Amino acid sequence: MKIAVAGKGGVGKTTLTVWLGDYLAGQQKDVWLVDADTALSLGPALGLGEEDLPAPLVQQQQLIQERVGSGGFINMNPKVDDLLGGLSREVRGMHLLLMGTVAGAGSGCGCAPNTLLKATLAHLLVWRAQRVLVDLEAGVEHLGRGTISSVDGLVVVSEPSIRGLQTASRISSMAKDLGLQQQALVLNRAAEGFQPPQDMHLPPLAARIPYLQSLEERQQHSSSVLDLPEQNRINELCESVLTRFDS
Amino acid sequence: MSLSIAFSGKGGTGKTTIAGMLIRYLLRKEATPILAVDADSNYNLNEVLGVEVDTTLGEVRERMKTGEMPSGMTKDRYMATKLEEAVVETDYFDLVVMGQPEGQGCYCAANTLLSDFLQKLTKNYSSIVMDNEAGMEHISRLTTSNVDELLVVSDPSRRGLQAAGRIKDLAHNLNIGVGSVYLVLNNVREEPSERMQGIIADMGLDLLGTVREDETLQEYDLEGRPSVELPEDNPAVQDAFALFQRLIG
């Protein structure tokens, strides 16, 4: 099962990704978590300190030159299947991989690191049979059709605000255009009676993230979203989301 | 010389809202004409400002890359026309939206045209306000001009501050010059506790000021009303204006 998680910033994408990963790992599944959001919050949300994070793939200059080349000829289909183990970090039975940001390329060609990022993501999503959860920053359109066809489902997270829902709707319709039909909406910070507007063409509502006071208090001084006292409610949430994509 | 101020921060911390407040502040200061650049792929600066966007520069770039264009026009000329059309003009400011990030393949040719266009465009303005996502990919790939001030926005959470710390480090690795980097702490209920100040110091951040959590602002957000329409005596607007004054006078 390969699932991408998208939505406007700050709606709880990373938190949900970590909970889903932890839930699957608890069932002894082989889980890969991919942080494709440039804020790189997935590691901290798993409880990792800055010094325990794996190096973002995009910072592996040497690797990029070796696999993709730099300037001159660029290999658009670099071999990456052997890279994943060495670049990821194992945490609580999950593998964490950070994509990172293509910065500092300036006027030069930033295509080589970009190509490696996309090839690695494509490899994980297309060839590996494990459970893969990708925490995205934007929508899925930059992944390319070939990669998207291997994704089983898209979870769109939103708050009840108009801006959050508009972003959700935009992400959903672009993903549909690219052939990613299996989608589910997860609402966060919504009042119990709140129903998403019909005319926004949002994916079917799969679950609501419960308000957890323990999490709100914890966030001020700690980054981890795991080991909360409300584990039962989190498990229920994960179950409702994942059953949408059972195939 | 134009003044260029960029925003970044983890998603959802309020950087777009505060960028909108800065545009309003610059208008009041008559630091016009103003160009607003939305470089967040989940763009919504236009919604904060209350304007509609037809085309994003990313869409034009994509069309350029896939080679869809009418006959009888050179690629460069066609692209230039389309890029110009993508500038949203209002009575108060102009806005360009970067939109979708790069897809697969090489974007160098299209990016070169796009960055030339941006370089020429930005020369026409006294103030430039840029809203970026945490990775600042557009800024680093597409602009060659320096940024005078980078305001990193965070909510009072450890994860937000960690992202802010990383952005500060990233800013020094960009190919363009970045003047000062300051932290803006948004959505605060109380002055930062000692513990919070400790985290800020650990991340090597320099706090410019705080912006209060505000119920009216949250209502505007919920209803999708442009937050630039908030009354000027709103506490969050007041806080933002006070820190802009410290920054640019």
Highlighted features:
heterodimer; A: 247 residues; alpha/beta; Rossmann fold; 9 helices; globular; B: 249 residues; 8-stranded mixed sheet; 20% strand
Provide mean pLDDT of chain A, rounded.
89
Rg of chain B (C-alpha, Å): 18 Å
How many strand units of chain A? 8
Structural class of chain A: alpha/beta
Number of helices of chain A: 9
The coarse silhouette of chain B is globular
CATH architecture of the domain at 2-133 and 142-148 and 211-236 in chain A: 3-Layer(aba) Sandwich
Q: How would you sum up the global shape of chain A?
A: globular
CATH superfamily of chain B: P-loop containing nucleotide triphosphate hydrolases
The CATH class of chain B is identified as Alpha Beta
Number of E-state strands of chain B:
8
Report the biggest beta sheet of chain B as strand number plus sense, adding barrel if it closes: 8 strands, mixed
Looking at CATH, which topology of chain B would you report?
A: Rossmann fold
Helix content of chain A: 25-40%
Mean of all residue-level pLDDT scores of chain B:
92
Descriptive notes:
The complex is a heterodimer of chains A (about 250) and B (about 250). Chain A has a domain at about 1-135 and about 140-150 and about 210-235: P-loop containing nucleotide triphosphate hydrolases (Rossmann fold, 3-Layer(aba) Sandwich), CATH 3.40.50. In chain A, about 35% of the residues lie in helices and about 15% in strands. Chain A has nine helices and eight strands. In chain A, strands 3-4-2-5-1-6-7-8 form an eight-stranded mixed β-sheet, with helices on both faces. The longest helix of chain A has 17 residues, at about 110-125. Chain B is an alpha/beta fold and about 250 residues long. Chain B contains ten helices and eight strands. Chain B has an eight-stranded mixed β-sheet with strand order 3-4-2-5-1-6-7-8, sandwiched between helices. In chain B, helix 1 crosses helix 10 (about 235-249) and helix 3 (about 55-65) runs antiparallel to helix 5 (about 110-120). The model of chain B has no long low-confidence stretch (mean pLDDT about 90). At the A-B interface, helix 5 and helix 7 of A face helix 5, helix 6, helix 7, helix 8 and helix 9 of B.
